[in-house]
Structure formats: C-alpha cells, structure tokens
Amino acid sequence: MDAISEVLKNFFLHPFVLSLVVGLLVFVFFYIRYPGILRFFKEKTLSSQKEVLRIVDMMMLKTPEEKVVLWLWGLGLGLGVLIFLAAWPNLALGVGFGAIGFLLSWIGIAKVMQSMWEQRCNQVVNQMVEGLAIMTNGVKVGLSVTQAMERVIKNMKGGPLAQEFQLVLNKTHLGMSIEEALFEMEKRMDRQDVTMMVVAINILKETGGNIAETLSVISETIQSRQKVESKIRSLTAQGTTQAIIISLVPFLILVIMFFMNREYAELMLGTTLGWIALLIIMGLIITGGVMMKKIVTIKV
Q1: CA atoms within 13 A on the CB side of 244
Q2: How many C-beta atoms surround the C-beta of residue 110 within 10 A?
Q3: Which domains occur in the chain, in start order?
Q4: Alpha helices (H) along the chain
C-alpha cells in the first residue's frame, strides 16, 4: 500500500503532470473569471476552422472534415504544450504564450491553406493557354462549349483546370445552365483571366458571336501576361531572397547563441522579459516581411 502511495505521489508531483494540472486550473480560472477572452479564442478558432474546411472543399481534397479538424486541434495543442514546456517553470508566462501559440497555429494553418488555394488558382490560369487552344480547335470543328470543355478534360486529365471544368460540367448535368456554372467558377477562382473567359463565353452564347476567335484572342492575352509576370518575377527574385534571409537571421543567431553561450540564450527563453522581447522581435519580423512582400509584388 505504501509503495502504491509512493508511486502515485511521484506521478502527481512529476513536473510535467504538475504543469498540466496547473494549466488546467488556470484555464478553469479564466473560463469563470474572464469569459470574454475564451469567447475571443473560440470565435477565432472557429473562423479559422471554417476557412480551412472551405478551402479543402474548393480544392476538391478527399479528406474527411473530422480528420481536418483533428489535425487542427493536434497541431494547435502540440505547439501550445511545447511553448508551455519551453517557458517552464514560469507557469503564468507559459500558459499565456502557450495560448497565443495555440491561436496563432490555427490562424497560420488557415493562411497556409489560403496560400495553397492561391497557387492552385495560378496553376489554373497557367493551364488556360493550352486549355483554351484545345477549346478553340473544338469549337472550330463544330463542337459546343460543353463538348469542347470535355475535350480539355480528356487531354489535360488530372490537372486543376480539368478538375474545374469537370465541376462545371457536373453542375450542368444536375440541371444548372452552363452560364451559371461558369459564373460560379469565376466567382470561386477570382482571377482576371478566368473572368475574361467566362464573360466572353456567356456574352457570345447570347449574342451569337465567334467564340473560337474570341477564345484564341484570350489565350494570346493570357500568354502575353504570363511572359510579363515571368520577367517581373526574375527581376524581383533578389528582393524576395533578401527578405527571407533577413527574416531568418534573428532565429539563426538565437540557435547559435544556444549552442555557443547557453546562458545568454536562457536569458531570452527563461525569463519574462526575454519572452516579451522575443514576441516583439517576431512581431517586427512579420511586419517587415509583409511590407517587403508588398514592395516586391507587382500586379500585372
């Protein structure tokens, strides 16, 4: 009996278990005393969750929603616990920054998913040159717009443009008009080149214009725009590389200090003032990175 009591005592007095218990008590305290803070966290996490699920659906990823939500909670709690343990034995600091890390992980994942969706939209635009050429040839030999889109799907199987066209055709099979299906595609993609194609097709289907010639002109316009964008990317590549290097330098210096002079590094990671300074540094780095990104980003 004494042995069991000793084991239980050692278990509950273990620093890791003790820290989890203290963290739970702090959570309960804030839940009762400051419900507005938890409501803010709930709103932010739910909005990030909805955004991630929306993008997963638009990207046609065959991933169950439950699995996506589980990954979000796992990554958020994992980062929060790591920050909490890094700030040990400062419990108040660990709980505060751990909660911030938990929230930032959800927001960060939503931003990453938005970036992935932007890349997919760019891939659709890049494939439109070839896709519109196939549609133009199909319309010239007497095919309808939907039949020409089917040719694009067959010739560009597996690509994002083929998936978007397949979604449009699926909606027409369910009773939606081709104009409405294309309009939903344009609204979802939010790209000037996609808008130009959709508006041209919808107008010419009503007025009876030369769709093949118009699609050929749109394809040439997109190709010219891509050449200009490629030239701009090559000219701004140096600025982008410098922004990345400058953003990573402070973290590299902190890692070097940790291995060469651990006492100085522990002043940053083991004290309240150090964590506040680290938070300010990260905020300045993020602000500088966003500003440099806006400077080197030129819209065509």
Answers
A1: 6
A2: 21
A3: 122-226 (1.20.81)
A4: 2-12, 15-33, 35-58, 65-86, 91-140, 145-155, 160-173, 178-189, 192-207, 211-260, 262-269, 272-296
Describe the crossing of helices 262-269 and 211-260 by its angle, rounded to 10 degrees.
120
pLDDT confidence of residue 237 = 74
Answer for the pair 105, 79: CB distance below 8 angstroms, yes or no.
Answer: yes
Residue 203 tokens read as 């107008």
pLDDT 10s digits, 243-263? 778 778 877 887 787 777 777
CA angle 172, 177, 180 (to 5 degrees): 105
**Cα–Cα distance between 148 and 178 in angstroms, integer?**
13
Question: Is residue 209 helix, strand or coil?
Answer: coil
Long-range CB contacts (within 8 A, 24+) of 225-234: 225/193, 225/300, 226/125, 226/126, 226/129, 228/300, 229/300, 232/298, 232/300
